[in-house]
Amino acid sequence: MNSTALVWFRNDLRLHDHQALSDATQHHSHCLAIYSFNHKTLKHTGLASRGPFRKQFINEALIDLSQSLAALNIPLLVTDESATEAIPKLVNEHTINAVYAHREQAFEEQNDEQSLLNSLRIPLKLYDGGYLVMPADLPFDDDKIPDIFTQFRKKVESLSTFRTPLPAPTKVMLPLELKSTNLNPTNTSIDPRTAFPFRGGEKAALQHLKTYIWENQYIATYKETRNGLLGSAYSSKMSPWLACGCLSPRKIYDEVKRFEREVIANDSTYWLIFELLWRDYFRHVYRKFGSRFFFRNGLALRPSPKKMRKNTDIFHRWTEGQTSEPFVDANMRELKLTGFMSNRGRQNVASFLVNDLGIDWRWGAEYFQHQLIDYDVYSNWGNWAYVSGVGNDPREDRYFNVRKQAQMYDPEGLFVKTWLF
Ligand SMILES: Cc1cc2nc3c(=O)[nH]c(=O)nc-3n(C[C@H](O)[C@H](O)[C@H](O)COP(=O)(O)OP(=O)(O)OC[C@H]3O[C@@H](n4cnc5c(N)ncnc54)[C@H](O)[C@@H]3O)c2cc1C
Question: Which of 374, 384, 405 to mutate to test the pocket of ligand 1 (most atoms within 8 A of CB)?
């Protein structure tokens, strides 16, 4: 029998390991897809929630997705309207029978889901996605998610294996009289010194995974190189594709495990999975604490003794890389000109803003949200809270001495020279 599904794409811009798309294509004869480019302004800084680098990356990902979906006869509509406005209209215009999407945990995204559940008169089928370990597979109840990463990791590692990623659907749907939105490539200039010279899209993501693990075998030395600062090879650089969902974490896990079986299993191969568990951890912890992630005192139960000033001049100098602290400034200029910064850099500039400049950590988190290509609500706000001493960190005095860190990680000053001169 003929029926039509609508797949609502969110932070899952791919075909592989996409439960919502797989089920929609399996149970219906026709299918169309929608993505809403929601333009929001951030609460504390007034910045656009999505800056030019991430916009460009997502645009590239959508162009790629649209081509892949077209091969299955699924048109992709991209709209500037909110999903809560656009989806009910589409449902009425095209006699849609069910809407399929991946569930999100964050506050605004959940509001959208709730609003659609209230307004649609057809089923909205929501699935968990984007995790390495699905909520249903955790070895503890949701309200018992450990507050400390090590406890979480050890329990999760005791699971014998994680779910294997789903293959991309291959069923070609019956055609619809509807055209995909015509998307034009944009051309935001990215500084050639960037550590992330890659494009958005599932195909680029899968190619990068292949190059990183199999062709260059950088995975075999990941643990020794991951604290680097310059060039595209020092860490995996998977985060931007993970953030908009061009790559499933379970796909990475699967490839790492295959590499361990076929080539070598060592501390480095383990450590990439370890880092992916950090990513999962923040997602699961968000499910427990909800919007406390955005509160001044974060997840901490007691008010923070930190100053948390709201001084726009000092904040502006930090964003522009003009604090007079070379290691901080070099990192902030890299972020401003490329949309990317190493993990080492992020820890240092965040600690400097909060502990040395005494600025409200949420301003820093918002600037990152605007600027990062790989912005991910859970990882960004979770890490900021952690570094700022209001997250779930067993150590209360996490402080990065930026000069010592520069001596340790940039002993020849090459990174600073690259960005400051
Ligand atoms: C203040 C601050 C803000 C951050 N904001 C974000 C963000 O918005 N989006 C984001 O993806 N990461 C964020 N991170 C985490 C981390 O810096 C990046 O994931 C990492 O630098 C991305 O580069 P990579 O893919 O080469 O990492 P790799 O070292 O190759 O790690 C592999 C993957 O593991 C995950 N991962 C690694 N470290 C962390 C971590 N500390 N927390 C959560 N996941 C991690 C990422 O998915 C990453 O792609 C933030 C860290 C800090 C200190």
Answer: 374
